[in-house]
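Deliverable D4.2, example record:
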Amino acid sequence: MHRKGYTKVPNYVWDDVRLDGEDIAILTWLSSHAPNYIIKGPTVRDRLGMAEPKYNKRMRKLVNLGFLKKSTAYLDGKVAGIRVQVTWPKLSKQNMGSESDAEPLKAVRRNDGLLRRTITKNGASTAKVVSFGEVIDHQDDL
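Output generated by the structure prediction step:
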């Protein structure tokens, strides 16, 4: 997913209850580099402010969860570091937080160009007309 100028992180990564901010920081930092970039532990640790034991534990965790694939990188027959591929596995419902289990709200465009939000509560369906520029908050009570 490496693109020049920005790093794209799938939205479901933020909902994975197995990951915390430091895990996501590692994934984001690693994915911001070219796929063949050779990584040395001290570079990542220094950039993210992690001690070696914490860094090693988190890297093992990310490999075990399927977010990373690691291989040893060699230059001139000597170990130069590691090559890491960020894989972004699909998130299963069991790894989502409770808020993520809710069905996302859908906005559809009406014939007059306004957006309409349809919400079903207790089997009843209601619609709300949303004007251009109005913020749709999923916590709104209708």
